[in-house]
Amino acid sequence: MRRRGLDFRRPVRKRFPNVVWWTVCGILVLVLIVVLSREGQIESKPTISRKPYRRDRIMEGVTVTDEMLSSNSVTRQLTDQISLAKAFVVIAKESNNLQFAWELSAQIRNSQALLSNAATRRTPLTVGESETAIRDMALLLYQAQQLHYDSATMLMRLRAKIQTLEEQMSSANEKSSKYGQIAAEEVPKSLYCLGVRLTTEWFGNPNLQKKHRERKQMDAKLKDNSMYHFCIFSDNILASSVVVNSTALNSKNPDKIVFHLVTDEINYAAMKAWFTVNSFRGVTVEVQKFEDFKWLNASYVPVLKQLQDSETQSYYFSGHNDDGRTPIKFRNPKYLSMLNHLRFYIPEVYPALKKVVFLDDDIVVQKDLSGLFSIDLNGNVNGAVETCMETFHRYHKYLNYSHPLIRAHFDPDACGWAFGMNVFDLVEWRKRNVTGIYHYWQERNVDRTLWKLGTLPPGLLTFYGLTEALDPSWHVLGLGYTNVDPQLIEKGAVLHFNGNSKPWLKIGIEKYKPLWEKYVDYSHPLLQQCNFH
Q: Which parts of the chain span the membrane according to its record (predicted)?
C-alpha cells in the first residue's frame, strides 16, 4: 500500500494527559467554595458585638462567665470564700458563737456587694478593689479553722445533730401514738351524759319499759327470713343510732329492715330507752346484751378463757410499757372485748336466720342496701370488699409468716378484705363449722405469735377460701385516718370511718364529719341537754 506524501497527511491533535485536566477542575472547585464561604461569613456577622473581656455561658440555668471559671479570677476567689463562709455561719450558730457568726455574715454581705457592683457596671473586678475584701474574709476563714470549723468537724457535728433529731422524732412519734390512742378511746362527756340520762329515764319511766315489752312481743319480723336482717355489736348509743337512721333514710323499703343490736350490761338500759323512744321510718330494732347468752362462757369461747390467764391479764391490763417493744395499740384491751369477737358467733346469736349483713358502728349508709341480700356468694360464707392494692393489705401484712403454721396454710400474697360491712350466709357457715375454725386458730395464738391484735387477722384465717369479693362501691374505707377520693365517697353505699379519727370525737377529720353528722338530730331534747353540737 502506498503511503501519502507528507503534504497530504492529516494534522496530528495535541492531547493533554487526563491527570492535568482533573487537577485543573479540582482547583477551580476549591476556589469557588472558598469564595462562597467568605461571602456567607460576611452575611452572618452579628450586628451587635459583645465586649471582648466577657463571654457568658448558660449552664443549668445559671449564667457562668469565663472570668468566674478562671483559676486566677478574683471573682471566683470571692465566690468560693462566700460559699465556705456560709457553711461556717451555720456551724458558728450551732456552737452558740453568735458574735463570730455575725462577723462572717457582715463580711459575706461586703463581698456580695462587690460582686453585685461589678455585674452592674459590666466590668471585671480588679485585684486592687477586691484585695481588702479577700484578705478580710481569709482572716475570718482562718479563724474558723482555728475554732475547729473544718470539714471533718462539720461532718461529726452534722452526724451528731442527725442522730439527736432522729431520737427526738422517735420519741415524738411514740408520744403521738400513745396520746392518739388515748384520745381515740376516750368517751366524750356528751356521750357519757346521754348514757346516764337514758338509763335514768329507763328505770324511772315504767311506761317506757311497757312500750318496749309490747313492741317486742308483737314483732314477728325478728325471725322472718324474708326481711333484711342487719346486726350491730356496740356499746356506743349515738354511733349505733346513726347506723340505723342512715340505713332507714336511704332504704326503699324501711319497713322490711330489722336491726339486731347487741350491747353490754352497762349500756343495755340506755340502748333500750333510746330505740324505744325514737322511731326510724318503721325499722324494727331488737336490743340484747351479750351477758344473757348462756353459751358464751370460758369453756366454749377461747377469748374468755385467755382472759383468765395471768400472763394475758398482765399484758393487757398491767400498764407496764414493755420497754417500748410492743406498740400501745397492740396492748389495747378492747381487742379482747366480746363485742369485738361476737362477729364469729353470729349463727349462735341468731339461730333462726339464714342471711345477715354485719355492720360496724363507725359506718354511715348512704345507699339502699337491699341489693346485698340478693348477691350470690357462690357457696362462700363471707361477702366482703377486698382491700389489697399491689402488696398493700395482703395476708403477709397481718400475719406472722415466720411461724410454720401460718407459712404452711396460707398464701402470703392472698388478698385481704375488710370487716365493717359483710354479708354472711349463715346456712353455709353452720355447714362448714366456721366458728370451729375460728376457735382452732384463736387457741393457737395464746402467746400472740400468729398475729398481734384485732379481729381482722383471725377473720382472714377463719374465712380463708370462704370469702366472695364484692364490688368496692359497697364499702368505702379510710374516712377515719386518711384522704379518700371524693368520687369513691360519692359512689359508696357504706362509708367506713375506720381508724382513730372517729366522727364523734374532737380528733375526727373535719371534712368528713358532715357525712356522719347529717344523720344526728341535734334538736333532740336529750342531745341538747348533753351539749351535743
A: 20-37
